[in-house]
Amino acid sequence: MKIRPTMRDDVAALQEVLNGTELFPSEMLPDMVNSFLSDEESSEIWLTCEVDGNPVGFCYAVPEELAEGAWNMLAIAVLPTQQGGGLGSAISMHLETELKERGQRILIVDTSGTEEFKQTREFYRKNGYTEEARIRDFWATGDDKIVFWKSLN
User: Fold this and answer.
1) How far apart are CA 37 and CA 41, in angstroms?
2) Alpha helix (H) residue ranges in 11-75
3) Which residue segment(s) compose the domain that 39 sits in?
4) What are the pLDDT digits (tens) for 21-31?
5) How many structural domains are present in the chain?
6) Can you give the pTM of this predicted structure?
7) Is 153 within the bounds of a domain?
8) What span, in angstroms and rounded, lies between the C-alpha atoms of 74 and 1?
């Protein structure tokens, strides 16, 4: 396993990760990652996890506007056939280490409060994130936004 900055050649494989996880429509990925790939000054972080030279997971994080040292992990996904082996945790820890080295303070992540996202919420808890907030009916009626928080200090 190797975790490294995302490269343009990773996009097609990461779209397959998205097709498998249905985190968000894979057609959105090329536009989302474009500013990171084309701007050396981009503040975004895109990390790709590869196994045997093949991209099988990624995460995407951005600094929170108007907040000092606060970041938001907007996406993390691992190919379903590779889930359960610790790759997601390794990607998350890699991101946390990179942010710590940059002197950042906290990392937050938003997810859904629905039953379909129960495993996702357990993943964050298992990796040391605390459920910090719940915004009722945020994503849709009956679908709360759950905000997880982790100190990087």
Assistant:
1) 10
2) 11-21, 29-38
3) 2-107
4) 988 999 999 99
5) 1
6) 0.94
7) no
8) 22
